[in-house]
């Protein structure tokens, strides 16, 4: 049996609970998770993170789900010193070894993130189409919250063109990101971003076998 990747999750007021549950459910025993929680009320500005962050971090990868920007920044610096890669979705700071996708399902494939980077991040699908209908949809890579897998179940049996639109809507329903947040760079809320990347991912999977989804002329076979 392959050695499990050791992941250290740092959360604030339950901010990582859905992701931790998704990694455990869809990670197929590939990970050893340790969760460090900060639940106390904090001031808007922290001059010193000592006493809030963990004293030691022994892991292959750190997932930063902190909501306080000062704590998140100091965590990144500490992991940089320890040479532990960090995934800090939605963060704006630039620290060596810290990857900052706009949201969890915006994480591209990158060297150094181990099994987590292979299994979680920007969605990838393998699809089977028969007579224009999506008859099977396998998730190769998906959001750590599990929205990708849950949304995929909802679109099997639909016409291919309809499934492309529907999976985006279903993803938004299952997405746990804050819908009130707005990213001026992308011009979308995280929830809308999640829906868009899932629709595009399914469209790409279908187009590997179909000349165009819109034509409705998808043949049988895997996409």
Automatic annotation (TrEMBL):
Protein name (Swiss-Prot/TrEMBL): Thymidylate synthase
Species annotation: Desulfoglaeba alkanexedens ALDC
Alphabetized InterPro entries for the sequence: DUF166
Domain of life, per lineage: Bacteria
Pfam families reported in the protein's UniProt record: DUF166
